[in-house]
């Protein structure tokens, strides 16, 4: 009997006490107690968001390694699927991780459309626990919220809502918004546009490009013709590099200031080069935040993965692992105690490189939003735009 439990002495003692009276019936945890905890990962490792998926995965594993490579005293096994950023394949992929791989937890995704599919399936099933380390779909912690769904990144609304007043305060009175035509871009542009108009400005055109197309020339001609005071954009990864370069090459950068949610310049400062210089964005993280966790995180990450490689996506992956470590510590590795894991995760304080944060009732981070600018290839904080900003969680009934 003891061999079943020798990886977790506390559970052995608890169960041994109970079995004296009740007779010994091995629980699922007793049988699986020494088996590795399986993390099913659905992230992009190809295409325009590949850098995002890799950064999240690297930092998630790095955080687990920092904690001795164990979750609640158990070793960890990873099973990863490349999401290919495919919404049609998302259901099949997540079902593969749950039913075939029998993952104990699901980490993913990056893309808002995939997040909505995952949240519908996993929320309805009630298990396992899903941690969204990037995708900002408002619905994931809004209308699709569920006790077993957590997010360590942001809602699309959170990243854009402070951009409107920031652009207005900089003296701009008209903007054009431009983004990819899917949930993330549509929701960010809506929050930016509405907050700009509430501040007193006018949004004169919304341009939507199919995802993940990087054909921008016709749109840049429209911007040049309409001459707004500023442009507000969402693109990320490889597509962001192309947009920044095309904007500069079209001669627009010197004439019409470019703004965006932080993803426009995050993690692409080097390849975008001069095209990213001076571009101002709003986000919940800046590389130069002076807290000790951030300094330690950047040093460790860049030692392993290369100078200048840390970014907000890695931060969100790192924090997803910190969240899971707290949940699993609360139950000593018993993944069957899902209620206790959820309650420990819901009340967790995450010591993040972005600064300490907690979760809202709908399991979304309550966090600061900063105005940043790229200077000499690095993100620099200009201003704190909001402290402890909480997503309104529209439609969340859980
Ligand atoms: C999204 O689809 O939610 C997303 C993708 C990349 C960066 C930020 C958000």
Describe the structure.
Helices cover 41% and strands 22% of the residues. It contains 15 helices and 15 strands. The chain has two domains: 2-154 and 290-366, Response regulator (Rossmann fold), CATH 3.40.50; 158-283, Response regulator (Rossmann fold). The strands form two sheets. Strands 7, 8, 9, 10, 11, 12, 13, 14 and 15 form a nine-stranded mixed β-sheet that branches. A six-stranded mixed β-sheet has the order 2-3-1-4-5-6, sandwiched between helices. It has 398 residues and is α/β, with parallel strands linked by helices. The longest helix is centred in the last third of the chain and has 18 residues, at 312-329. Residues 1-24 have low confidence and may be disordered. A hairpin with a 2-residue loop joins strand 2 and strand 3 (74-82). Bound molecules: benzoic acid. Benzoic acid is lined by residues 52, 110-112, 134-137, 184, 236, 263.
| The CATH top-level class label of the largest domain | Alpha Beta
CATH superfamily of the largest domain: Response regulator
Could you describe the largest sheet, including whether it forms a barrel? 9 strands, mixed
Radius of gyration: 22 Å
Multimerization status: single chain
Return the average pLDDT rounded to an integer.
93
How many individual β-strands? 15
- Low-confidence blocks of residues: 1-24
Strand content: 15-25%
Q: What is the name of the CATH topology of the largest domain?
A: Rossmann fold
Structural class label: alpha/beta
Give, in order, the helices and strands. HHHEHEEHEHEEHHEHEHEHEHEHHHEEEE
Estimated helix fraction: 40-55%
Cofactors, ions and other ligands in the entry: benzoic acid
Give the tally of structural domains.
Answer: 2
CATH architecture of the largest domain: 3-Layer(aba) Sandwich
Q: Per the principal axes of the C-alpha atoms, what is the gross shape?
A: globular
Number of helices: 15
What's the N-to-C terminus distance? 41 Å
């Amino acid at each position: 009997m003891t061999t079943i439990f020798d990886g977790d002495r506390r559970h052995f003692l608890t169960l041994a006490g109970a079995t004296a009276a009740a007779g010994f019936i091995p629980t699922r945890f007793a049988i699986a107690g020494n088996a590795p905890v399986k993390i099913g990962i659905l992230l992009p490792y190809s295409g325009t968001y590949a850098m995002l998926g890799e950064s999240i995965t690297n930092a998630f594993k790095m955080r687990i390694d920092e904690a001795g490579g164990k979750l609640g005293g158990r070793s960890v096994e990873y099973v990863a699927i490349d999401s290919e950023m495919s919404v049609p394949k998302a259901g099949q992929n997540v079902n593969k991780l749950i039913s075939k791989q029998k993952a104990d937890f699901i980490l993913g995704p990056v893309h808002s459309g995939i997040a909505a599919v995952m949240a519908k399936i996993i929320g309805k099933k009630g298990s396992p626990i899903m941690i969204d380390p990037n995708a900002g779909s408002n619905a994931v912690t809004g209308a699709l919220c569920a006790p077993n769904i957590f997010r360590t990144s942001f809602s699309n609304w959170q990243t854009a809502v402070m951009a409107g007043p920031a652009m207005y305060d900089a003296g701009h009175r008209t903007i054009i918004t431009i983004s990819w035509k899917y949930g993330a871009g549509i929701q960010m542009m809506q929050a930016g546009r509405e907050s700009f108009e509430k501040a007193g400005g006018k949004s004169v055109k919304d341009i939507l490009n199919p995802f993940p197309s990087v054909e921008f020339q016709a749109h840049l001609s429209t911007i040049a013709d309409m001459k707004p005071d500023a442009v507000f954009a969402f693109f990320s990864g490889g597509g962001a590099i192309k947009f920044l370069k095309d904007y500069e090459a079209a001669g627009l950068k010197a004439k019409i200031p470019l703004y965006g949610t932080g993803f426009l310049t995050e993690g692409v400062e080097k390849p975008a080069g001069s095209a990213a210089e001076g571009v101002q964005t709003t986000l919940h993280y800046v590389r130069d935040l002076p807290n000790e966790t951030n300094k330690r995180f950047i040093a460790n990450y860049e030692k392993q993965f290369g100078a200048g490689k840390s970014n907000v996506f890695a931060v969100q992956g790192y924090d997803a692992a910190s969240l899971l470590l707290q949940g699993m510590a609360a139950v000593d590795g018993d993944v069957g105690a899902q209620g206790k894991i959820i309650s420990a995760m819901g009340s967790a304080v995450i010591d993040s490189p972005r600064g300490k944060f907690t979760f809202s009732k709908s399991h979304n981070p309550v966090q600061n939003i900063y105005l940043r600018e790229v200077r000499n290839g690095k993100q620099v904080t200009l201003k704190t735009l909001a402290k402890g900003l909480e997503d309104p969680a529209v439609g969340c009934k859980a």
